[in-house]
């Protein structure tokens, strides 16, 4: 079997080598390994199952038994080194986090194998560099692989796209763990796939090629650009086979093909001439090819209309990187995580509809853990948009998908928050008591505080005391501040003094005016400010609350602000809020708004407007009807409509003529 061959279509002086599977590469030539005397798989594909030893090796890697895999390899140490097994050893070392050893092993085989196996080893080196935070070197090696990916296994391209998305994600830093008292937190996927799943994808997934013969069937100098459309997003795809040249020359070829103009400062353009590379790509997103060429020279690129600028400054193109990894990442084990990240990036577009579509895709194809992340984030998206019914449905889905797990505690906590935001204190208690039974310390503490807060809303300080007879809040913020607030408020309720009022005020500011409990928390905080004799603080606490939907706590806050301005005689400010209340909640708080509007109209001498708003209270509560009839009678009397005025003063609603 020949160790190397020259393709008749190669450029003069350029050779393409292919090493047989089971072939040991040494200086001076290649020699068949005694382990694979009958092997027929070339090094351009992943090794097959030649014997029981290989099957054991692959099974251990796919199960995550990396130590046992290395022990199994050590048991064969007397045999000659085989590149396919060396690559598997590198995977095992990566799984154990022994990045330096894995990279050293990959370096030993650099240039001694070819085809897909060389690409896999180089991608292993990329992962090692990324794990150590050497982003520039990782980009350079990833670019080297992508620009030579035109033949063989399509998963080489998919891995390159996914690794680029992983780099962007890992450079954002470690996300904070989910905290029940932090509003608007999202659940983030792991920064890399579970390594055994990656091994299984490598070893137990059939290799795929974009074309039967890759780019070999195209002559040197060939280039083709096609438009691909996925989910209404268009992407240019490049197929090209260009011989070795400087990066600058390759970029000029590409720009000429596209009808673009290459731009950059002289120093940057001269740097492009210091590195040489070939370009053999087969249906690869154009943006990835441009990034790979720029990465070869340690540069970045951006596009402005028909001009391609090369620059040293890094370009922010997170969404494009994630889109390409999502659409063309295939069945890579981290593709679903990319879908989650992309949904986060697009949550503010089209009122979150793009994110919902992505979450549905992830739920259809993802692993159980990724599906739970998608359900959680989908629920948070609905929550932030005030779609509480939709959020409740998603959290119930999460609860059903993971009973008895930490996800169940998280779902119960947020279902309690939804119930609280809807004004259903009994349902909130039910869900938070379920969290207490789940025995998860972090979420138990939040649930205990939630139950205490429900008691505060009910003005039941005895229940607050009973809750803390056998349980205590953690000794860290914000729980310490909450403990001080609960204790101080209890003392103030029993015996108000200026010093106790100051203690409560300080604690209330430390817990950000109970913002951890959303609109209900803000409402309660405002009531505390009012009880402390600081109505201006109450107004400041309430004024910035957006009137979104029919949140009962927000409606109460708007009513309190409107009533405060009305009492001060600030008719314009009061009228603005009263009209909004009347439009949003005409049969609830809008009735009190209508009474204030009628009173304001009477004070300003606008009789007909006073009659109009007072008439809207025909089906209001009895106390509101009495006030409205008295006001309406005066308005009719001033309008010389004495019969209707008499009816009103008699406590009856008049019949309009």
What this model shows, in words?
With 657 residues, the chain is mostly helical. Among the domains are: 23-146, Serine Threonine Protein Phosphatase 5, Tetratricopeptide repeat (Alpha Horseshoe), CATH 1.25.40; 214-326, Phage tail protein beta-alpha-beta fold (3-Layer(bab) Sandwich), CATH 3.55.50; 545-657, Tetratricopeptide repeat domain (Serine Threonine Protein Phosphatase 5, Tetratricopeptide repeat, Alpha Horseshoe). Helix content is 57%, strand content 8%. It contains 30 helices and eight strands. It has helices spanning 52-62, 66-74, 83-95, 99-108, 115-131, 135-146, 155-170, 195-203, 247-258, 266-271, 286-296, 318-328, 335-345, 353-365, 368-384, 388-401, 406-421, 425-437, 441-457, 461-467, 479-494, 498-510, 518-531, 535-543, 552-567, 571-584, 589-603, 607-615, 622-638, 642-649; strands at 23-26, 29-32, 222-230, 233-246, 261-263, 276-285, 300-304, 307-311. The strands form three sheets. The protein has a three-stranded antiparallel β-sheet with strand order 3-4-6. Helix 6 (135-146) packs antiparallel against helix 7. The longest helix is centred in the first third of the chain and has 17 residues, at 115-131. It is elongated. Residues 1-52 and 208-213 have low confidence and may be disordered.
């Amino acid at each position: 079997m020949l160790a190397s061959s020259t393709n008749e279509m190669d450029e003069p002086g350029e050779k393409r080598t292919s090493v047989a599977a089971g072939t040991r590469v040494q200086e001076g030539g290649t020699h068949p390994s005694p382990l694979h005397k009958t092997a027929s798989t070339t090094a351009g594909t992943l090794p097959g199952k030649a014997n029981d030893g290989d099957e054991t090796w692959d099974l251990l890697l796919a199960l995550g038994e990396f130590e046992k895999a290395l022990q199994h390899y050590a048991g064969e140490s007397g045999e000659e080194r085989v590149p396919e097994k060396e690559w598997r050893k590198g995977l095992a070392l990566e799984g154990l986090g022994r990045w330096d050893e894995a990279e050293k092993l990959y370096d030993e085989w650099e240039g001694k194998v070819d085809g897909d196996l060389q690409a896999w080893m180089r991608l292993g080196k990329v992962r090692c560099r990324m794990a150590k935070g050497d982003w520039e070197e990782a980009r350079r090696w990833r670019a080297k692989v992508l620009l030579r990916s035109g033949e063989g296994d399509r998963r080489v391209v998919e891995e390159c796209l996914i690794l680029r998305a992983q780099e962007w994600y890992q450079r954002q830093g470690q996300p904070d763990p989910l905290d029940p008292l932090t509003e608007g937190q999202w659940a983030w996927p792991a920064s890399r796939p579970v390594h055994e799943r990656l091994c299984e994808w490598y070893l137990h997934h059939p290799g795929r090629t974009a074309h039967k013969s890759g780019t070999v069937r195209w002559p040197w100098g060939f280039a083709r650009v096609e438009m691909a459309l996925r989910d209404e997003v268009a992407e240019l795809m490049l197929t090209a086979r260009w011989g070795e040249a400087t990066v600058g020359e390759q970029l000029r070829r590409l720009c000429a093909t596209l009808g673009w103009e290459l731009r950059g400062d002289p120093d940057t353009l001269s740097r492009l001439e210091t590195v040489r590379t070939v370009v053999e790509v087969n249906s690869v997103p154009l943006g990835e090819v441009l990034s790979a060429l720029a990465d070869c020279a340690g540069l970045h690129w951006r596009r402005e209309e028909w001009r391609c600028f090369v620059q040293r400054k890094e370009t922010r193109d997170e969404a494009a990187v994630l889109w390409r990894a999502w659409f063309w990442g295939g069945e890579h084990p981290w593709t679903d995580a990319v879908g989650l990240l992309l949904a986060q990036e697009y949550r503010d577009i089209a009122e979150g509809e793009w994110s919902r579509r992505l979450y549905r895709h992830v739920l259809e194809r993802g692993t159980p853990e990724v599906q739970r992340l998608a359900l959680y984030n989908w629920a948070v998206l609905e929550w932030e948009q005030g779609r509480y019914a939709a959020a409740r449905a998603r959290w119930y889905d999460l609860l059903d998908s993971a009973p008895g797990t930490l996800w169940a505690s998280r779902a119960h906590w947020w279902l309690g928050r939804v119930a609280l935001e809807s004004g259903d204190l009994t349902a909130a208690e039910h869900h938070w008591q379920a969290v207490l039974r789940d025995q998860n310390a972090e979420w138990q503490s939040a649930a205990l505080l939630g139950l205490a807060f429900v008691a505060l809303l009910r003005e039941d300080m005895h229940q607050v005391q009973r809750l803390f007879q056998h349980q205590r809040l953690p000794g860290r913020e914000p729980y310490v501040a909450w403990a001080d607030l609960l204790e101080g408020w209890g003392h103030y309720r029993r015996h108000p003094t200026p010093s106790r009022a100051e203690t409560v005020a300080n604690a209330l500011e430390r817990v950000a005016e109970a913002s951890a409990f959303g609109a209900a928390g803000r409402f309660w905080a405002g009531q505390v400010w009012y009880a402390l004799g600081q109505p201006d603080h109450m107004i400041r606490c309430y004024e910035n609350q957006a009137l979104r939907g029919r949140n009962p706590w927000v409606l109460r806050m708007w009513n309190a602000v409107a009533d405060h301005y009305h009492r001060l005689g600030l008719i314009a400010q009061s009228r603005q809020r009263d009209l909004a209340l009347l439009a949003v909640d005409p049969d609830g708080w809008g009735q009190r708004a209508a009474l204030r509007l009628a009173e304001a109209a009477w004070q300003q001498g606008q009789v007909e407007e006073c009659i109009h708003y007072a008439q809207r209270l025909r089906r209001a509560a009895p106390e509101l009807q009495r006030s409205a009839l008295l006001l309406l009678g005066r308005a009719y009397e001033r309008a010389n409509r004495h019969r209707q005025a008499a009816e009103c003063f008699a406590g009856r609603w008049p019949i309009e003529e």
